[in-house]
Specification:
By secondary structure, the chain is mostly helical. The chain folds into 2 domains: 123 residues, RNA polymerase sigma factor, region 2, helix turn helix motif (Rna Polymerase Sigma Factor, Chain: A, Orthogonal Bundle), CATH 1.10.1740; 60 residues, Winged helix-like DNA-binding domain superfamily/Winged helix DNA-binding domain (Arc Repressor Mutant, subunit A, Orthogonal Bundle). Helices cover 74% and strands 0% of the residues. It is built from 11 helices and no strands. Helix 3 packs across helix 5, helix 4 packs across helix 7 and helix 10 crosses helix 11.
């Protein structure tokens, strides 16, 4: 119902409306849940961990929706920034933190085998060939393409992370994607 009501509403507007209308955040969640689950599954190869990380990421996003600033980037990029921080914190601590969920009173999900299989299929859908080809790129291109396409980082953030200029990152992404496209065309 929230999706239909907000079908033509931009993500930034959904976040702005979240305080007054919880269904706005529901629509934002519905739009990005599958992509976030797939992101975490590719990173962890564990459906249960992907689900926990997704829940905590959305709880963090809900708690900080008021602080989203569209001048600093897209809402999707902001969400995936939270996701990357959650993932890094999880690797550092060795477990998924659930502070935001507990603070908001969100109960943990009980995942059925069917739900776990769905998460795995989201993470692996159509990506195995492309991921194998990605692994074959030179390291600098692979890191740039992975950061830009899979992790959805902006060029400025990638340039800082890869310790180079934005134009170099753009060039690496462009070359890497061209190489992947040529290799994929050769397969088909």
């Amino acid at each position: 119902m929230a999706m239909a009501r907000y079908a033509n509403t931009e993500d930034a507007e959904l976040l702005a409306r979240t305080r007054e209308d919880p269904q706005a955040f529901g629509a934002f969640y519905d739009r990005h849940e599958a992509a976030l689950l797939a992101f975490f599954w590719r990173a962890t190869h564990r459906a249960d961990l992907a689900a926990d990380l997704t829940a905590e990421t959305f709880a963090q996003a809900l708690a900080s929706a008021r602080g989203f600033n569209p001048a600093r980037g897209t809402a999707r990029g902001w969400l995936f920034g939270i996701a990357r921080h959650e993932l890094a914190d999880t690797w550092e601590r060795g477990r998924v933190e659930d502070q935001a969920r507990r603070r908001l009173g969100v109960e943990p999900l009980a995942l059925s085998d069917e739900m776990l299989e769905r998460i795995e299929s989201l993470g692996s859908r159509g990506g195995s060939e492309a991921l194998e080809l990605l692994a074959g790129l030179p390291a600098d291109q692979r890191r740039a393409v992975q950061g830009r396409v899979l992790e959805e980082r902006d060029y400025h953030e990638l340039a800082r992370a890869l310790d180079c200029s934005e134009s170099v990152v753009r060039q690496r992404v462009s070359r890497g994607l061209r190489s992947l496209r040529e290799r994929l065309e050769g397969i088909g």
